[in-house]
Amino acid sequence: MAPGTNEDAPENDRADVTPPPEGEDSHEQPDRSERPDRPKRSPESPRARMLRLGACAAAIAVAMTAGAVVLGNKDDDGVRTVASAPGLAPELLATGSLASSISALQTHLKAQPKDYGGWSTLGAAYIEQARTNGDPSRYPQAERALDRSLKLMPDNDPALAGRSALAAARHDFPDALRYADKALYENPYNERALSTRIDALVELGRYKEASKAADQADARRPGIPVFTRYAYVRELRGDVTATRRVLKQALASASTPGDIAYVATALGQLSWREGEYKTSLTYYEQALRADKVYLPAMEGRARAQASNGDRKAAITGMEDVVARFPLPGPLVVLGELYEARGDEGDKAKARAQYALVNAWTALARANGVNADLDTALAAADHGDRKAALRAAQAEWERRETVHTADALAWALHVNGRDDEALPYTRRATATGYRDATFLYHRGMIEQATGHKKEARGSLSAALKLNRGFSPVGAKLAEKTLTALGGAK
After folding, report:
1. Rg (CA), the chain
2. pLDDT per residue over 331-347, tens digit each?
3. For 24, 151, 197, 373, which has the most beta carbons within 10 A of its beta carbon?
């Protein structure tokens, strides 16, 4: 049960997880006894079954559009260590070093090439390495390893859950959901599949189903991976109080450095979105005490420092982040920090950061990652506006979420199509999700369409909620609000 909740477990754990056949949406369970193409497995001992069910370790949130990229750690010798991530086998967590674990697995599989469990674990490790290094070129390697596992043992749930996580990492959320359902048909308690299923439903905009999936996962495998997703689903509905309560109790239960860093960072991000900068900095420091180079905490701390008026520390911190992993979110923030500082050469520095977003996008797409949302958000403000609109429209065709609605509204706005943008920006704020950027976008679009009273309300709400949401956007919001007659 998620911390602080009193909701009943579902009576039938398997009720809504059926194995959809390839290319179909069937909800009928096939007769398992009539599957002659499936290799027979040796009977598992109770101990072996428990080990297999327990092969998922704790928490990585793929709420990608929320900007949560969970990364690993380096020790003092520069060796990448394992952050908390469901789907990594215990032996990977035990060794500490992800790179050395991958090397050991590769050696093992040369000697034992028919070890389907080893191939599944290697695939999961490649996915984690892609995330920790910000390097999508690892995804094809993960795909080959997971497919090898499934060829050796069709329908083994760790590999199916790995394919689900891989699809989510590539932003292919329909496939992520399909593979998660298949994995959960084989093993209803697979933690990675339960977690990724929630992620996929969230990223497809199916929020009611995501809430149900979070409740179901909480009943089956309560723990930090599920608690953090449970909290995010409630935040999307505007229930910040419940979100904070669940995350605080999850942090109190966290025991490993990876879990502490992960949950403390989630609390830091929530506090920052609520405009509580000092509180957010406290959580980020707690995260960094547990893991001194935990990238999401480093990025969050830099954002909070900027919001709290310490631009120098913010720029230094964000430069450190992008030097390690030049991902789109930090690159845009650093570029805007340079713009806001305005020293000699800062405009050129900012342009260089925005150009790197394009380089990352090209690399991502070359390795099967759908980067349209990243492209739309970055290009609308700092790049090719027409390309931003094309990307936003393509993403909206794939999934109708609050984040894609906001991106499409803003892309339409910067292309001068405000009347078309208005219904999308209203939809972005319709669930109750509290995000100052969404409110800022809504206010600017309302102002452009002549809804001055509504624009004053939206811009006032954005600045009241989180005045530090963007170094550039906040300045424009204040200027526009002044022209409208001041805060409402």
Report:
1. 23
2. 999 999 999 999 999 99
3. 197
